[in-house]
Amino acid sequence: MYAELQVTTHFSFLRGASSPAELFEQAKLLGIQALGITDRNSLAGVVRAYEASRETGVRLVVGCRLDLTDGTSLLVYPTDRAAYSRLCRLLSIGKSRGGKGKCFLTWDDLVTWNEGLLEILLGDEPSDELKGNLSRLKETFGSRGYMALIRRFAPNEHLRLYYIEQAAQAAKVPTVAVGDVLYHHPDRRRLQDVVSCIRQGCTIDEAGSRLERHADRYLKDPIEMARLSNGDVTLTDAGCIEGNSAA
Question: Residues 119-128: pLDDT tens digits?
Fold first, then answer.
């Protein structure tokens, strides 16, 4: 069973291009049994996602993406109600520091509030910085920490993923394949380009490489995800987040 654990909704302002309802309806059509909603520094989409989950029967995995002040990004998922409360507290702390529309969090905040949270570290390039993040991930989260492997369809893609996986293995951190979804269907690519331009203050003609390189940030069915992994990464299932609550 494949669960897409990195889904951005339109509650991530000027980033996601589909509503929770559209995403869960498409997941049902594709045979995806669970969606992890991971809006940026926010749980704003969780209520609508919960409603969509109830209507479609596709399981909701509650989570969010945290972008730390040092540039580290990670996905976090509470495993019970107490952990959900701690995540809410963590976000409140970050938003009180950052002011309107911002969230300032550090790794030290994660050390303080990580109990009961599962985490997937994000990072597209094998580097000393990534190795350092994997090391502190293992120290902070222990067996609750994972490393994301994401296809970007760039040159030397398999080599890049190989080195990231090797770094994760050296740190004794398991890897997990995610799709980094921004919209539910390929047809929504144009709208996602528009909101990206608004966020970056440019026109479509001026955007160039600031837009997503390929029209691939949509939900894919389990067979397609298995084909894309091509045996190089391990697909996950909803069981890796056992206990995650929609409340």
Answer: 999 999 999 9
